[in-house]
Structure to design on (493 residues):
């Protein structure tokens, strides 16, 4: 089977394992190609595969075949920095082992050059200018998620994660129905983006109206939501319909619904029960036709148990509940998200954007504690700073260019002999201590540290990533915190 560049590719398993429908299975995700970050990502199932071969080809292709009774997966990459016989993955007992085949530019795992390495959950593999992610994720035997993202999904509803793909499919199915939706998840996980997708799929002719319940002043909340009559209170100089009536025949999105005061919860319950709203100062209700989507980062059932949120209102709202996972738990989607966000922040020239391997490595190893919102702001900044050139490490905001990666620390992983001699531990320790001392002296200023060491900013960024140092920790003059073990950048001096 071959895959064209303009279509997401998924390989079907050749063997079915007995056992739980949620059994973790090995996958390789082709996440990002630096020269063409808008190229589609791909999900490659390794279930039943004996060997994966990587090499350069005239076009990207992914072929599955049997050779000498062994199941092979042949991955050809349209990448001039990949050798014709670059690397392979084979089985070593119960583990998968990555081996470089004497390539010109080497094979990297989490930013470290390797001749061979046993793969562990979350490993980032770098071949030329192309990045893969190895994950073991739960996938059902018949895996409806194996089809990959649906063709042209609404922004925010594309995913390679099987469990999340199932929930997105259910969300698309109920979107045309007038069923309330509750979106739960950490701040920045894309709850408003998903709510807009629901509205787009609903076919409702009215507008999408978004309200942040936590941002409205308590004294004006009911007036803003339900509207008011002229003279209802001091300053009410004219009739106002309110935000709920503004969403008539459309979708009303209530963000941070957990911050809605008790009195407003009671009034809003009537809106849902009776499909009508009474403006402040009015005596007659007005009918409204609403689709309601609410979002929160709070645990609403726990709030109901404590008496902080009305149980009857929660029951009315929770027709369909979707938990959006944090970005650190869906890293296989980073390529999909980066491509979609680049189209969003630079619609006129997204197809011309490229990035360096150093910048891509940092983006793909970062935990993204502030989730998709942080990734979008990072890319928007980088695109502006890069201008007509490619995105470099220096174009990423400082908190991002000094990442705390979520990949497994190298020291914690069983490994085959490294391709190159390892740098003496004493030298690493001395350099790390010198960097920390200079960051304290210069209060986290990377440029000042670079001048003090006689190095370029790029080299300092490499060492920051390698030694798990967070410059922001020293900007207040504190002792700093030790981050996760970082990977050594390519071209380390």
């Amino acid at each position: 089977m071959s895959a064209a560049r303009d279509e997401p590719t998924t390989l079907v398993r050749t063997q079915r394992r007995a056992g739980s429908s949620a059994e973790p299975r090995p996958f390789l995700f082709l996440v990002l190609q630096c020269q063409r970050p808008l190229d589609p990502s791909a999900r490659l199932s390794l279930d039943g595969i004996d060997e994966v071969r990587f090499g350069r080809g005239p076009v990207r292709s992914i072929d599955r075949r049997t050779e000498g009774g062994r199941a092979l997966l042949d991955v050809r990459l349209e990448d001039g920095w990949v050798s014709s016989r670059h690397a392979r993955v084979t089985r070593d007992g119960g583990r998968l082992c990555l081996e470089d085949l004497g390539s010109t530019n080497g094979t990297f795992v989490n930013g470290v050059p390797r001749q061979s390495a046993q793969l562990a959950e979350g490993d980032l593999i770098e071949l030329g200018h192309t990045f893969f992610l190895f994950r073991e994720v739960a996938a059902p035997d018949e895996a409806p998620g194996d089809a990959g993202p649906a063709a042209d999904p609404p922004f925010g509803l594309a995913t390679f994660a099987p469990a999340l793909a199932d929930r997105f499919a259910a969300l698309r199915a109920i979107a045309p129905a007038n069923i309330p939706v509750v979106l739960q998840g950490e701040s920045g996980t894309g709850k408003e983006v998903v709510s807009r997708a629901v509205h787009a799929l609903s076919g409702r002719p009215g507008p999408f109206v978004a309200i942040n319940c936590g941002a409205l002043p308590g004294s004006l909340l009911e007036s803003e939501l339900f509207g008011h009559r002229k003279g209802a209170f001091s300053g009410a100089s004219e009739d106002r319909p309110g935000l709920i009536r503004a969403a008539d025949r459309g979708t009303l999105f209530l963000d941070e619904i957990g911050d809605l005061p008790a009195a407003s919860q009671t009034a809003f319950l009537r809106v849902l029960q009776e499909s009508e709203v009474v403006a402040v100062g009015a005596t007659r209700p007005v009918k409204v036709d609403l689709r309601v989507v609410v979002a929160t980062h709070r645990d609403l059932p726990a709030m109901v148990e404590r008496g902080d949120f009305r149980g009857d209102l929660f029951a009315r709202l929770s027709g369909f509940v979707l938990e959006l996972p944090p970005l650190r738990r869906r890293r296989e989607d980073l390529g999909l998200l980066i491509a979609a966000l680049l189209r969003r922040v630079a619609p006129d020239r997204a197809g011309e954007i490229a990035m360096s391997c150093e910048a891509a490595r940092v983006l793909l190893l970062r935990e993204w504690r502030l989730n998709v919102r942080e990734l979008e702001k990072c890319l928007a900044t980088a695109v502006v700073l890069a201008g007509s050139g490619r995105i470099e490490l220096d174009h990423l905001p400082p908190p991002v260019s000094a990442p705390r990666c979520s990949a497994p620390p190298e020291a914690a992983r069983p490994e085959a002999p490294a391709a190159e001699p390892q740098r003496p531990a004493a030298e690493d320790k001395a350099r790390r201590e010198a960097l920390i001392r200079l960051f304290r002296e210069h209060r986290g200023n990377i440029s000042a540290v670079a001048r003090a060491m006689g190095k370029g900013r790029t080299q300092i960024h490499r060492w920051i990533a390698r030694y798990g140092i967070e410059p922001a920790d020293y900007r207040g003059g504190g002792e700093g915190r030790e981050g996760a073990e970082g990977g050594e950048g390519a071209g380390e001096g």
